[in-house]
Design a protein that fits this description.
The protein contains 17 helices and 8 strands. The chain is of the alpha/beta class. Helix 1 packs antiparallel against helix 15 and helix 5 runs parallel beside helix 7.
Length: about 350
């Protein structure tokens, strides 16, 4: 092993042992092949061309956005027949957090498809909340949820999802997020939903600039008053927007492998704007989006950026710090926890880039 590979391996080991946070993560995107295969068997489901776990593994090897959407909607979400099936996702989430040493995660949960399939919202959020409490009890890792109000089903459905959240408050549910097909649902259609959420002290975030031009980000930050931008890749098109996001210190929830997978704005990692964003002084955080489905967990996201020469170890530690402080967490706890993490870094051979 040459010197560079040795150093990278050492940094990977250091990073693995460092407590981390993640703030852009979808619960269904944590579903493993084992989980879906178990659900297929338990719920006695039949899918064309899936007769074994090996067949299912092949379905998970998606090569395009359309294949991903088909897998997500037609197989993964349809494999959940009753509310208790969601407990499988809680198990997958716990194992993911442990594998990557993530001590605080903020996770999206999209209820609409489940509601259409007859699930009870109160039962679902109770399972989420109890699951979060169990993860903290057994692993001392904190999980908070954003309920996805989803562009894909329109503003009326989004308001319904918000009302369900407001009528079923849970400690672990901290806000709403606007996900779904960005091109189908411009942010301006959801102004009243987000206004009502903020009036009721919920945190608000939105996917924006993932596969739509920079105007989607402008509308999300100005009309919806979101606290963080999910993805935000198309900001690179607009220097004025980059300045605005920098000056307002709005965190960018960047997910490099996900952006490469969608192939809309970024075709190769070397052309990803994450470097330009950080160099510009923007508040860049690093996340996975759908780790199981895209085949890249949080540790891999850091290492991809190191191994391809996008960032130095110090710059990656800067991303780690940014992600920590972008979390929705009690400020005193946030500062105290960071002090502990910083002490570990100061004892290492690496330092955080300024």
């Amino acid at each position: 092993m040459n010197k560079s590979k040795t150093e990278n391996a050492q940094f990977r080991e250091f990073l693995l042992n460092l407590p981390k946070t993640e703030i852009h993560l979808h619960l269904e995107g944590l579903a493993t092949v084992d989980t879906i295969w178990s659900l297929i068997q338990v719920n006695k489901l039949n899918y064309p061309d899936i007769n074994s776990k090996e067949d299912l593994k092949k379905e998970f090897l998606v090569n395009s956005l359309n294949e991903f959407i088909s897998l997500f909607i037609n197989i993964i979400q349809n494999s959940f027949i009753k509310e208790d099936d969601i407990k499988y996702l809680i198990k997958d989430a716990k194992e993911y957090l442990v594998r990557n040493n993530i001590f605080h995660a903020e996770i999206f949960f999209a209820p609409t498809k489940f509601l259409q399939n007859g699930f009870d919202f109160q039962k679902m959020v109770t399972i989420l909340d109890e699951g979060a409490k169990e993860i903290f009890k057994t692993e001392k890792r904190t999980v908070k949820f954003f309920i996805d109000v989803s562009r894909s089903f329109g503003p009326e459905n989004a308001m319904n999802n918000l009302d369900l959240v407001l009528n079923n408050p849970k400690e672990s549910i901290i806000g709403i997020g606007l996900g779904g097909a960005e091109i189908q649902g411009p942010a301006r259609d959801y102004i009243q939903v987000f206004k009502k959420a903020k009036e009721n002290n919920l945190h608000v975030v939105a996917h924006a600039g993932e596969d739509v031009d920079a105007y989607s980000i402008w509308d999300s930050v100005r009309l919806l008053n979101i606290e963080r931008v999910g993805h935000g890749i198309s900001a690179i098109q607009d220097p004025e927007l980059m300045d605005y996001l920098k000056d307002k210190n709005i965190p960018m929830e960047v997910c490099p492998t996900s952006n490469l997978f969608t192939q809309h704005f970024v075709k190769v990692i070397e052309k990803h704007p994450i470097k330009a964003f950080l160099d510009h002084g923007m508040n860049v955080t690093l996340n996975t989006d759908d780790p199981t489905l895209f085949g890249s967990e949080l540790i891999n996201e850091y290492m991809i950026l190191l191994e391809n020469g996008i960032f130095t170890p110090g710059e990656l530690l800067k991303l780690l710090k940014n992600t920590h402080f972008a979390c929705i967490m009690d400020e005193q706890q946030k500062k105290a926890t960071w002090k502990q993490i910083e002490a570990i870094i100061q004892k290492s051979q690496w330092s955080i880039a300024e």
